[in-house]
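fwd from M.: "can u put these together and see what the complex looks like"

so here's what she sent:
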Amino acid sequence: MLSVIVFLPLAGALLVLAAGGRGDRHDREPLVRGLSLAVSLVTFAATLYLWWRFDPASADYQFVEQRAWLPAFGIQYLLGVDGISLFLVVLTGFLTPLALLSSWAAVHKSVKVFCFFLLALETALLGVFVAIDLFLFYLFWDAVLIPMYFLIGIWGYERRIYAAVKFILYTMAGSVLMLIAIIGLAWAYSAANGAPSFDLRELHTVTLPWAMQKWFFLAFALAFLIKVPLFPFHTWLPDAHVEAPTAGSVILAGVMLKMGTYGLLRFAFPLFPDAAHVFAPWIALLAVIGIIYGALVAMVQPDLKKLVAYSSVSHLGFVVLGLCAVNVQGVQGAVYQMVNHGVSTGALFMIVGMLSDRRHTRLISEFGGLKAVMPRLVAAFLLITLSSIALPGTNGFVGEFLILIGAFRWDPRLTACAATGVILSAVYMLWMFQRVNYGRVTNEKNRGLPDLNAREWGMMIPSAAVAIFMGVAPALFLRPMEPSIVRTIARIEGRMPATARASQPGLGARGRPASREPRATSDEPRATSHEPRAATSEPRATSCERRAAASDKKI
Amino acid sequence: MRFIWLIPLLPAAGALVNGLFGIRWFSRTVSGLLACATMAGALGLSLWAFSELLGLPADARVHDVVLGHWIPPMALQTAHDIGMFQVPWQFRLDPLSGVMILVVTGVGFLIHVYSTAYMKDEAPGGYARFFSYLNLFCFFMLVLVLGANFLVMFVGWEGVGLCSYLLIGFWYEKKSASDAGKKAFITNRIGDWGFILGMFLVFFTFGTLDFRAVADAAGAMPIESAGFGVLSIICLTLFIGATGKSAQIPLHVWLPDAMEGPTPVSALIHAATMVTAGVYMVARNAVLFQHAPHVMQIVAIVGALTALMAATIGLVQNDIKRVLAYSTVSQLGYMFLATGVGAFAAGIFHLMTHAFFKALLFLGSGSVIHAMAGEQDMQKMGGLRKYMPVTFVTMMIGTLAIAGIPPLAGFFSKDEILYQSFLNNRFLWLIGAVTALLTAFYMFRLILLTFYGTYRGAPWARVAAPAAAMEAAAHGVRHPLDGQAQKDDHEVSHGAADVRAAGHAHAWHGPHESPRAMTVPLMALAVGAIVAGFLGIPQALKGANTIEHFLAPSFESHTAAAREAGAGAAAGAEHGPGAAAAEEGAHHLSTAGELGLMVLSVLIAVAGVLAARRFYFTHPELPDRLAARWRGAHALLFNKYYVDELYDATAIKGTVAGGRGLWTFDRVVIDGAVDGSGWLTRVSAWGSHMFDKHVVDGLVNLVGWIAEEGSFFVRRLQTGLVQNYALLMVVGVFAFLTLYLVAR
């Protein structure tokens, strides 16, 4: 079943290519568009069916497909989905039709090829999220780059070539290191078990020496952090976003950035728990810097797309912070926020696309007073803006709140800094919203712009509905995630450095005097821990809390 | 009581229908009726639920309704145990929330009715949009007061902030309006930052977010009279949230600007309900705060200072709505003073009476603005008493109430606060008393300038043309000192937009009484402003202080053990400030003393009234002389202590500059590093290209060149002439022979 979902878009893409006829035939455009939309909708329906059939109580990979591929190297064709990847698969299915729709007004050049690349991209993305053989994962991971490269490079705006090249080289630089680490990991497995394997489930059993873990973790983490993108590896993102066509931005922000955070959670942290333990606080620190930095830079952007791109840097900082907290709330919030960000930022890019379709500019100063001209578009814009600034009752709030409460458990001071992102997001979004939509129409070109048409309603209604639904009834999403997340956390926690474990008096934090504030619980073990880094002032999780948190789900 | 969840949901339904369909298809009558009907329904349900609540015995007055799970249960380690982090959609009716829903639905309903007339010159779409927002606001406000845990309250808390943002910026074409809306939202968000951190700390301390469970657990903990413990930090962060929402120092700056919204909005949101949410939240967590006496002191001091500061600013403002706005800030300060000295019931009592008389005053000012075709400058009014008698009488009642003249509502609630603060701290009482004097003064200044004296506004014969009315309004509102707004060509000032609402731009026939849909709510609120005080007649006046006894169960912890511990702790901390001290003190002050204080506060109020009469009625030239003499002080007050300017110069400019700086950093340093490494790669590629071309390839070419050049030389030998060959042979043989001989 997973193979069907993954390769359905690719098959559809080939069909579209065939249906498009030779050359750039404009009379076939409606057919091409209809066909590719139909393919993407069927894929979305299939992902929904997957969710329907998914057993929310199980932490295991479900719908596993396993075939030998290159047995000499232990490489398998191995697919499976669990609570972490399930919603990313659904999200990919959800956003691709919307991305296709968003391109209808903007793309007129080689529509056939455009649709082909977009659908091929969907296959690669789905593959990334369901592959549990590391080699296969790497294959899909790099396969994603190719269609995106062409989408930016062919259908982009003025500096598209620069952006496309920057995008592909930057992300390739990270992924090559990851490939080396993957091969090294398989080699280490083969040294221990006699035969190599790339099966993630098998690789969990390998215990690596610290020196090796450190370097492998750094290689993986670098690849993923570039993809996220975490400060200071983020500069490819604004360029790629600004130059990409709307559909490209939607998929880029909506799904591709999640490959990085997904990779951290799926591979980097559980495969190298000791290294994760040491480096997570530093990554979290970068994440918090990114939250504030991204928000401040977003505030002063003159270009709508750049503003949204920098806001992504800020939002993804929250996700990484939640992951680094390594407790159920933090990680669950992070996964939830990945989906949220896909929905709301995807929708923001669609709206920017609509404005850009109408005015052929994305400069904030070119707009103003749109509310009087296009009240319905602005109403949708407002709703998505609110979701982006995490107003309670929308999806963003649930994600951010869970992340922050998880992170607060872990380090209150860092979280207090991260929470200022909540203020700043209101500042940059509302300021932008005011400049674009309020006031009087001062630019004559803005007068008489058409309001939402049926196609655009078709993009806005699902986005807005999902944003509110996920804010009011998150249980539907959180429950299937929980078992897998709990198991992943157990993996990360399970192999603590021996020194840190030795310093733990039982389950530590329990049974303290009632008046103690929580912060005290994180201070005390810090002093007693024998690890060298623990003595520094650097905010970090103490093993005591992590152990205790790990024991949570056994209850 | 089983249906209390319907109370918020009714206005939500109204908002949804009006928002989705009304803006497009409904006429003004339909959307107005729909909105009023949902509020009437909510009011009816509230009354029903409240009467049922009264039917219960005093200690069983609590009723919970769970609608479902919001955030499903997940284990999370807390400070001393593993808690279940879960958040149900849960509403709770108890005496405190009972009083609040009555205030919200009651005042809310009246303001809805009032708005049907006030907003009637909006286009139907705008009209439906207005009522959709207003209904949405009521929904969130009811969620806020009914929420049984912190997070549900927070939904309402941020939701009312959103509605406030939308309604302040309702006339979105005015830059000043959308600026004010944004300012309100962002200032509130700064407070919410504290609220969120407070919630986290609450959860990690108590393992739950439910108010009742938190109160019970906190009740069992010792009072932190020695230093700052976790409870104090919780209370401090929560109080940061309250300062944002309730416009206390230092986050008070947004409320006066919020007057850009339509006047009914100012009455409902920025006077009667939303801004009191902070007070409500502090009262809701009374047990927590009682255990943090130091924070209580901070609350009381911030409240008292805010009350004083806002009252002094109110003395010199000329815009009728701004005077009322500063008066609101000042009265909110009173409420925090009350909660800070441990008199939670008095705070809520004042909240309730204030909701009546301040809503009345705002609606009355709206009626005046309506009559004056959008004019808001009191210096352009005067003598309106004879044109609009109903508005005058009702506003007079409101003014007497706020000034603290017995037996109107404000007297009882304010006096209770002053009495309680006298017991707690004489200095705080002094500030409160001075503020009372100022309050009476500036409120009667407002009445005298508006309704007494001679008419000073534009003559209505000449204001027939809309342009003239707009201009008059634009000139009237902005005092020259008040800012640069006027210079902006696109700026439509304050009053001019209300012209649209008041709708007299076309043919203004002079000031006149407002239609019945506006005066009836005024009269209803006036009745409230008269009688609401009788709920809290103090025992010194042979009253029963009904409201205090009714509310008391909401302010204490409920388990027997916790109550005992709390009582023990209270006894132990009798010398500390806070509730315990207040209770102790209550026994020390005799009935005569209490009566004496009461008489004193009446005298203070009367003094304020008389001073205002002297300044603005009998000797109207005095204020100008005083202003000229104390120029600096007057400018300081008129410009609101320059707090806005200070924030603008520091926080706002600083943030924007920081953003720009970081952006440059981003482009130059971080992206520079990326591009730089790309450039380095290219340079090294070019280098190796050059190396390849000139060195590696050069070597190859050198060999070729040598071969070529060498062969060229050798080729010369191949002349084809036998003589040359013969000669070479001879030379060669000769040479070899010589070599052979020499070598030998």
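replying to her w this: Chain B touches chain A through 67 residues (CB under 8 Å).
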